[in-house]
Amino acid sequence: MKGIKTLFEVDVLVIGGGAAGTLAAVAAARRNKKVLLVETKGALGGSRTCMGVDSFNGFYSPGQKTLQLVGGISFEVAEKLLNFESAFIRQNTFGSGPVVTYEIEQLKILYEDIVTQAGAQLLYYTYAADVERDKSLINGVIISNKSGINRVKSKIFIDASGDLDIAARAGENYELAGENESPVQSLTTVFYMANVDNEKAFSLSQEERTRIMQKAKESGKYKLTRIGGSIHPTPNTGFVHANLTRIPNINATDPQALTAAEMEGRKQVQEYVHFLKNEYPGFENAYLAFTACNIGVRETRRLKGKYILTGEDVRQGAKFEDAVVCCSAPIEDHVSGTSVKWQYLEAGNYYQIPYSSLLPKKAKNLIVAGRCLSATHEGQASARNSAQCMAMGEAAGLAAALCIEQHTAPGELEARLLQQELIKQGVLLVPIEIELERLIK
Ligand SMILES: Cc1cc2nc3c(=O)[nH]c(=O)nc-3n(C[C@H](O)[C@H](O)[C@H](O)COP(=O)(O)OP(=O)(O)OC[C@H]3O[C@@H](n4cnc5c(N)ncnc54)[C@H](O)[C@@H]3O)c2cc1C
Asked: Which residue, among 236, 233, 231, 220, has the nearest Cα to 269 in the 3D structure?
């Protein structure tokens, strides 16, 4: 575009500082590459922080024997939070395995620390708005912020925007959630309650919780959009996380629809706050501490890349020659209606996410990571767990660095070399059995 200045020239430009983008930036910068990470908000973490989600799923498998599925720099994040004592491990409410529940404010700082200590440059309040493309190469990404509209040139681009913004604008093929037979996963406004009596609130079984909610809904006094959901303790006693609201059939890449969803989500929170205070043991003296800054979006555009991960791959525990991530998380489909559709893998089984599901078909210098990976609705409903998103980011960042070192393109990079280097930094391409019981609170 004429008249636009090139403000940065880097080796790797990472778009989006969520779980995937943060890890991509760290992995590439630790290989001494010049990395710029642009993020439209004022914090790293994406749905991990700004959308209020406080638990990493996907590090550990469900079942009698615990498998650890994700290692490397991604696990370093979880371990650091656990070492600060600002996190603990608990069993997931829905039996999808042990999860790491952390303090969001600590994660924001930790992500910033690992990015800057690795030597990557971080630019907040910067939106990656457009792409300059010359045949099969992306030449630049157009960024916009308070200082104007400028260009970033880079050897490799990593789209970790969650919504596939850059790959879509570069003309890659994608599927927009909801455009085929499966409805788009519902959105959720996460909120936190303070001054809760933890002992009373968490003495109830999930069945008892569901019964209380069902009864309250049937009474006609409260408009509850989800029955069940997650109300769980945080590292701070009396401070409780609530994932209860549900806004179905929203295309979150449509700003008008997303604006309406934000407003609807906040209204639903008020309904749940009244319900909790009036009907739920332990919440009698509680109050709403805050709602997340941004409504939680589970699914928008998914890449149609070199390999498309499917629900069948998840259910059957598919293994791939170019595997870069392991996962045993169930397919967790937040369909419209008041419940969630769960499909679990057989106990002890796992599947792998291949490098080729991070690769687009057209642009030669682009890699995708995180919840916008190349997957079907069902495949993404399992692979979108945050430990796996971090691991995808880590693989994408390392792949970008290796491409620069090897003077090659992401699509030409030898998967075996990438795997060797991933293993060197502690990434698990085969899960390991571990003893976890002592850590569970
Ligand atoms: C309500 C809800 C509850 C969940 N619960 C859990 C849970 O308990 N455990 C679990 O493991 N997972 C959970 N998940 C899933 C998980 O959090 C996400 O799938 C995962 O963290 C996605 O990471 P990501 O980096 O791919 O995307 P995101 O978290 O969406 O991050 C994308 C980042 O890119 C930025 N960005 C977007 N577009 C641009 C642009 N054009 N320019 C610059 N920046 C941009 C965004 O601001 C954001 O920071 C939940 C998700 C939701 C919505």
From this structure: 231
Q: Which two tokens stand for residue 436?
A: 């976890």
| CB distance 31 to 168 below 8 Å | no
Q: Please give the distance, rounded to the nearest whole angstrom, from the Cα atom of residue 24 to the centre of ligand 1.
A: 14
Q: State the distance from the centre of ligand 1 to the C-alpha of 385, rounded, in angstroms.
A: 9
User: 220 CA to middle of ligand 1, Å?
Assistant: 34
Claim: this prediction has a pTM higher than 0.90: yes
Residue (of 281, 365, 358) closest to 20 by Cα position: 358
Q: At the topology level of CATH, where does 5-62+73-90+100-174+302-436 sit? A: FAD/NAD(P)-binding domain (3.50.50)
**Closest protein CA for atom 20 of ligand 1:** 386
Tell me: the pLDDT tens digits for 234-260? 999 999 999 999 999 999 999 999 999
CA gap 6, 328 in Å, rounded = 43
The atom of ligand 1 lying closest to the CA of 384 is 19
- In this structure, the residue with its CA closest to atom 15 of ligand 1 is 385
Pocket of ligand 1 (CB under 6 A): 15-21, 38-41, 46-48, 51, 53, 55-58, 127-128, 160-163, 165, 188, 190, 243, 296-298, 370-371, 384-386, 389
